[in-house]
Amino acid sequence: MKPIRRQEGFTLLELILVLLLIGLILGFSTFIVLGTTLPSARFSATARDLSTTIREARSLARVSGDKQTVIIDLDTGSYGIEGRKTRVIPGDTVILVRDPFAGDIRNGQYRIVVHASGAPESGIIVLQSGKKTASIQTDPIVGSVTIKP
To answer: Which tens digit of pLDDT belongs to each residue from 55-69?
Structure first.
């Protein structure tokens, strides 16, 4: 009688199940990673976009020779250059302005006036979302706009 030879290896069903489990684990881990990094990325993008709006107003003021005004509506959470398209701040982001003359401003409209020379009149704009904080500062002499985490 011939001895029965046992074949070694995995069956196709076992390989498919292992690949399915690996795919589920990767899917859940990707969902968890994106769930925690997306709000942070959105916060950073908002800070960059607001500083870019101030820089754009500075460029427009220098080119046109007229002053430009950036309006930050703290009640509705929107901002933009006066007479142009406004942008919305994400709902989980709190914004306040530390004005050197008026103190902390938390509601109403705050206006950043950029003169034809390119010098902006503004305080420090503070964005907060969860544990993240970013400050947007303008230099009234040089006109530069910086973001500090």
So the answer is: 999 999 999 999 999
